[in-house]
């Protein structure tokens, strides 16, 4: 029983660490700040827990086996209660923390989510070592400490795998975190029910265990209402209802639908980890500028385009329009949720487009040079993953193009600090030396779409393009 508790609590530690990274992403982005905070607070919490557990095991007076057993048994329930309290707090405080400071707020958020649960669970290890030491009467040199940390670490490995491949794809971050709290409460209940584990106050352990489990269950039951997930959502001067939520290994996709006007027209939004990826009207016409810009630039440089490769599906608007225009279109998308959402909500017809569920980096490494245009719309959170903006990636991308083919990129630029974007341009042009940059002139914009057209050969002269259905408000910027 004690080693089973150590194994499962070790898994809970890493499960909570992974879930914390997912919880924080919508507030703080996919950034170094998040993982710096998570790792430093995790290690600090473990250090404090090991020290505290050792202090409790020794104490100012010699503690009995029953007292140490009580402390060992109650720790998971205390950790579960701390997680329930954190789940009550973080929907209210993480947004103000992100507005206060991206780096400082991330550290405070990690303290709220991780500190108390990890201190309590890690204190179990030295307490179990103390129990083993008393049972063995000094017959073993390490008193079983090596075995305790071995089992705990194996539990952490199991926790990572179960969280990544079962919890995250099938549960919301909120529900998954509360499930961890409930499991920790159940561990204490199991400890209290075990006659072989010496314990001075089984009733107290049982009470804390029940409190953790009930708190987690009640909050999970009311999770959608408490976190506002069931809507309506006030955004951009309108009220939106949540039509659907789809989770996968690569994030959570939510679909929002606005209230219909007198003529039955509405808008539908594609959210990925709470960042807007696309907005489409009730006629399945995109309201997002970038989709029209990608199509317009592709047609301007290759008016007779026949073979198109698109990296990144999103809502599927651009590949659907190009396929409707007669092009042979292939799409590479790593997230299975994107394909499901595009078909269910945005009219994407997978029969007209060849789709590959794969990592774009791996796919282009085996690409052949038969595409007139490669469209690159790859984002994780609010930026392009670093491994997709390397010289090797651009070199492989070049092999996907015909000799006169072009690549068109949707990127984001920070106009107040252009150094990172300068690195991107320098890396890209080392392999695709002929390039043009298009950026809408939106007054006051700090972060804005920047569209790159790049090729291994000199770029051809652009041709005029007419796009049927483009929203009137985008016409001027598109023409410019």
Q: What is the structure about, briefly put?
A:
The protein is α/β, with parallel strands linked by helices. It contains 16 helices and 12 strands. The model has no long low-confidence stretch (mean pLDDT 89).
Question: Could you explain how this protein is built, in words?
Answer:
The chain is α/β, with parallel strands linked by helices and 480 residues long. 55% of the residues lie in helices and 18% in strands. The protein has 16 helices and 12 strands. The strands form 2 sheets. Strands 8-7-6-9-10-12-11 form a 7-stranded mixed beta sheet, with helices on both faces. A 5-stranded antiparallel beta sheet has the order 1-2-3-4-5.
Indicate the overall shape: elongated
Average per-residue pLDDT, rounded, comes to: 89
Q: Which percent range fits the helix content?
A: 40-55%
Determine the N-to-C terminus distance.
70 Å
Characteristic terms for this protein:
single chain; alpha/beta; seven-stranded mixed β-sheet; five-stranded antiparallel β-sheet; elongated
């Amino acid at each position: 029983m004690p080693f089973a508790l150590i194994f499962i609590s070790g898994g809970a530690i890493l499960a909570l660490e992974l879930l914390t990274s997912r919880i924080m992403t919508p507030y703080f982005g996919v950034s170094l700040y998040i993982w710096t905070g998570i790792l430093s607070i995790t290690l600090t919490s473990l250090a404090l827990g090991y020290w505290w557990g050792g202090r409790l095991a020794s104490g100012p007076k010699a503690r009995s086996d029953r007292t140490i057993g009580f402390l060992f048994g109650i720790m998971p329930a205390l950790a579960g209660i701390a997680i329930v309290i954190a789940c009550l707090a973080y929907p209210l405080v993480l947004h103000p923390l992100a507005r206060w400071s991206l780096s400082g707020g991330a550290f405070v958020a990690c303290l709220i989510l991780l500190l108390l649960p990890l201190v309590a669970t890690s204190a179990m290890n030295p307490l179990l070592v103390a129990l083993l030491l008393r049972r063995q009467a000094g017959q073993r040199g390490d008193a079983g400490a090596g075995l305790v940390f071995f089992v705990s670490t194996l539990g952490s490995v199991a926790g990572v795998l179960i969280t990544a491949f079962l919890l995250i794809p099938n549960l919301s971050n909120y529900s998954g975190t509360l499930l961890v709290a409930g499991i920790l409460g159940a561990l204490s209940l199991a400890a209290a029910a075990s006659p072989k584990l010496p314990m001075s106050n089984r009733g107290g352990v049982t009470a804390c265990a029940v409190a953790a489990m009930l708190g987690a269950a009640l909050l999970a039951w009311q999770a959608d209402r408490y976190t506002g997930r069931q809507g309506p959502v006030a955004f951009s001067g309108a009220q939106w209802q949540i039509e659907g939520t789809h989770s996968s290994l690569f994030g959570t996709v939510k679909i929002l639908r606005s209230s219909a006007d007198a003529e039955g027209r509405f808008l539908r939004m594609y959210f990925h980890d709470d960042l807007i990826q696309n907005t489409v009207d009730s006629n399945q016409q995109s309201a997002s500028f970038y989709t029209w810009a990608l199509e317009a630039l592709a047609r301007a440089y290759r008016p007779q385009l026949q073979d198109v490769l698109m990296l990144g599906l999103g809502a599927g608007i651009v590949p659907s329009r190009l396929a409707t225009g007669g092009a042979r279109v292939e799409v590479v998308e790593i997230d299975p949720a994107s394909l499901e959402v595009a078909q269910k909500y945005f009219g994407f017809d997978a029969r007209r487009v060849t789709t590959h569920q794969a990592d774009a980096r791996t796919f282009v490494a085996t690409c052949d040079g038969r595409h007139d245009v490669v469209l690159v719309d790859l984002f994780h959170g609010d930026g392009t993953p670093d491994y997709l903006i390397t010289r090797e990636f651009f070199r492989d991308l070049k092999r996907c193009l015909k000799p006169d083919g072009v690549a068109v990129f949707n990127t984001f630029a920070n106009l107040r600090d252009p150094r990172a974007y300068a690195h991107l341009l320098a890396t890209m042009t080392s392999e695709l030396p002929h390039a043009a940059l298009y950026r809408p002139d939106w007054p006051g914009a700090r972060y804005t779409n920047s569209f790159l057209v790049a090729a291994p050969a000199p770029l051809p002269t652009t041709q005029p393009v007419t796009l049927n259905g483009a929203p009137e408000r985008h016409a001027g910027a598109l023409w410019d």
